[in-house]
């Protein structure tokens, strides 16, 4: 009998392969995206120093209307928020880490919103 991997295990395997190739630096941090069943999160991470520079999610007070609803519009607002925080820290160039998710729908909407606000991938 073949033991088929779950969606979570498959995504985690993809994430491990992606992380072998990309890493964040102080000049070009990694934008890591995670989505749960109810919220979407984005972090700017400097892997060399092991610190998180900025975070944004639907749990923030200015995005309360999207709590528990990870629609494409919510992902766009999180992308806008993380881009504004990155700009305030002086970051304009980033490396995008889709965290093993398919680049489609909410993940693509978050990335496109961040690009529109001035972040370069």
UniProtKB/TrEMBL annotation:
<dbReference type="InterPro" id="IPR005484">
    <property type="entry name" value="Ribosomal_uL18_bac/plant/anim"/>
</dbReference>
<keyword id="KW-0689">Ribosomal protein</keyword>
<keyword id="KW-0699">rRNA-binding</keyword>
<keyword id="KW-0694">RNA-binding</keyword>
<protein>
    <recommendedName>
        <fullName>Large ribosomal subunit protein uL18</fullName>
    </recommendedName>
</protein>
<dbReference type="GO" id="GO:0003735">
    <property type="term" value="F:structural constituent of ribosome"/>
</dbReference>
<dbReference type="InterPro" id="IPR004389">
    <property type="entry name" value="Ribosomal_uL18_bac-type"/>
</dbReference>
<comment type="similarity">
    <text>Belongs to the universal ribosomal protein uL18 family.</text>
</comment>
<comment type="subunit">
    <text>Part of the 50S ribosomal subunit; part of the 5S rRNA/L5/L18/L25 subcomplex. Contacts the 5S and 23S rRNAs.</text>
</comment>
<dbReference type="InterPro" id="IPR057268">
    <property type="entry name" value="Ribosomal_L18"/>
</dbReference>
<keyword id="KW-0687">Ribonucleoprotein</keyword>
<comment type="function">
    <text>This is one of the proteins that bind and probably mediate the attachment of the 5S RNA into the large ribosomal subunit, where it forms part of the central protuberance.</text>
</comment>
<dbReference type="Pfam" id="PF00861">
    <property type="entry name" value="Ribosomal_L18p"/>
</dbReference>
<dbReference type="GO" id="GO:0006412">
    <property type="term" value="P:translation"/>
</dbReference>
<dbReference type="GO" id="GO:0022625">
    <property type="term" value="C:cytosolic large ribosomal subunit"/>
</dbReference>
<dbReference type="GO" id="GO:0008097">
    <property type="term" value="F:5S rRNA binding"/>
</dbReference>
């Amino acid at each position: 009998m073949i033991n088929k991997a779950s969606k979570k295990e498959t995504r985690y395997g993809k994430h491990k392969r992606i992380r072998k190739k990309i890493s964040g630096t102080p000049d070009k941090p990694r934008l890591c995206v995670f989505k749960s069943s109810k919220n979407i999160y984005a972090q700017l991470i400097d892997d060399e120093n092991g610190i998180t520079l900025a975070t944004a999610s639907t749990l923030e007070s200015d995005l309360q209307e999207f709590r528990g609803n990870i629609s494409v519009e919510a992902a766009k607002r999180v992308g806008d928020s993380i881009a504004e925080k990155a700009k305030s820290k002086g970051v304009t160039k980033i490396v995008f880490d889709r965290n093993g998710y398919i680049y489609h729908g909410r993940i693509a909407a978050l990335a496109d919103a961040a690009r529109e606000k001035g972040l370069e991938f």
